[in-house]
Amino acid sequence: MGLKKEPAVPVEQLLTSLRVLVEDNGDIVKSGIDINDAFLLGFLVGRKHNLQAAYETVQKYVDVRRRKYVQFFSQVSPTGFIYLYDEPRFMAVLKHREQKTGCIVSLLRPPRDLSAIRQPFETILGLATLAADQFFYIDDAIKNGVIIVISGEGFGFSHMKEVTPARLKTAVDICYQAYPMKVKQIHVVNCSTVFNTVLAIFKPFLPRKLRKRIVVHNTLETFHAIFEPNIIPSWLGGNRREEADWEVYDYTFDMASLDNADYYEKLAKKLAEGI
């Protein structure tokens, strides 16, 4: 990890200036979103202490919720996903960071059978936004960024039907454009033929920076050259048996959204009132 450049203007001063801009924006103030210092600081750090860029990203964060995708966000609540705790885990955050970069590592392993998941695309995207919200309160997530690992194992035609250009644009608009966290790398492993086909079709539609950060591993050996087997679960060829090892996933992170369920319920209700 390289040394982080200190901002020319003190962070406290930038934070005060950003809060003034935000509080002068009626659209943001009336949104129902919790505009606390940690939240605003996340935008400043994620946008390399560029005040204008941070403010514009806050506006995008609010806009996708209040206008662009209000129908979607008016239904996003942690309690709506509780039933998934009885299903095999398909999204998780590793307890340990990637050693070279210090990045948080987020895993996505779509289940072979999608029938148990209500509205699979909306569910996965909803869970992703709840996770991204928690990153505001994890210091190194903002500073170092996030690494995403996607498993294409078992990806078939039922999964393929869930991926459309419009849905891909929605995911990029929300998760890439409206959050300050940097996606440093995307590693794709265990690819099925269908997954490779979908990736080849839709990769050109992704932002250029994101495309350049996608690494497809044809074997787990190349993946293990980057990720220490002692921090990854057995389904990625690691030494951790996820069903019996409390050192593999960050279970505290899992519960953070549920701890804030009341906030999300109120926000969803407020957004629904504006439809």
From TrEMBL:
Q: Name one GO molecular function term.
A: phosphatidylinositol bisphosphate binding
A GO cellular component term found in this entry reads: membrane
On the tree of life, the source organism's domain of life is: Eukaryota
InterPro entries associated with the record = CRAL-TRIO_dom, CRAL-TRIO_dom_sf, CRAL/TRIO_N_dom_sf
Query: Which Pfam family is one of those matched by this entry?
Result: CRAL_TRIO
Q: Where is the CRAL-TRIO domain?
A: 69-244
What name has this protein been given in UniProt?
A: Alpha-tocopherol transfer protein-like
Q: Could you tell me which species this protein originates from? A: Orchesella cincta
